[in-house]
Amino acid sequence: MNRTDQPEVAIIMGSQSDWPTMKNAADTLEALGVSYDARIVSAHRTPDRLVEFSKTAKENGFKVVIAGAGGAAHLPGMAASMTPLPVFGVPIESRALKGQDSLLSIVQMPAGIPVGTLAIGRAGAVNAALMAAAVLALNNPEIAANLDDWREKQSQAVAEKPVNPEE
Ligand code: RP5
User: Fold this and answer.
1) What is the reported pTM?
2) What's the angle, vertex CA 24, arms to CA 22 and CA 30, rounded to 5?
3) What is the mean pLDDT of residues 90-108?
4) Number of the ligand 1 atom closest to the C-alpha atom of 69
5) 15 CA to middle of ligand 1, Å?
């Protein structure tokens, strides 16, 4: 569910088909009490929407952008070229090349316009949200405390000894 009260993080993705992956970023932000807005913005299919979003993202109140795309994944880099906000890129696991195409397209930005690139797929989406929260936590004690709690719960959830699957 999107939170609409002045969202701090924009989650953008190239296609509806990216949502099952990018929802992991949304769910993680939700768990950390970070407001977000999620929308489909395709570098190839909706270039005007990309320009409009990117050029107004900062003035619209966003502080961080998370951009997920697959294949020839231009979305994060193009968005980064048109906004001064930090952009974290999530390579979607593509069918043909298992996301290696997405990863290389996003990570290999030429010097001058950075995209903070995360891992392929779910791990990247979750970690992009954690990175966004860490950025916001620098100036937001509530998010900082939520992030500390989240990490503490993660540690507590790890058993000290492995169990056999059949037990
Ligand atoms: C990219 O093309 C999207 O980010 C998506 O990962 C990929 C495939 O899109 P669909 O053909 O599934 O819409 O722009």
Assistant:
1) 0.95
2) 110
3) 97
4) 4
5) 5
Asked if 26 contacts 36 with a C-beta cutoff of 8 angstroms, the reply is yes
Domains of the chain: 9-156 (3.40.50.1970)
Nearest-angstrom CA–CA distance, 85 and 73? 19
Distance CA 55, CA 62 (A): 11
The pocket around ligand 1, CB under 6 angstroms, is made up of 13-15, 17-18, 42, 44, 69-71, 92
ipTM for the whole predicted complex goes beyond 0.95:
yes
Q: Ligand 1, atom 12: nearest CA belongs to which residue? A: 17
- The percent of residues above 90 in pLDDT, for the chain, comes to 95
Alpha-carbon gap, residue 40 to 115, rounded angstroms: 19
* Nearest by Cα to 106 from 95, 94, 58, 96: 94
Q: Which residues contact 20 (CB under 8 A, 6 or more apart)?
A: none
CA 122 vs CA 28, 78, 103, 129: distances in Å: 11, 22, 13, 11
Q: How far is CA 96 from the centre of its chain?
A: 22
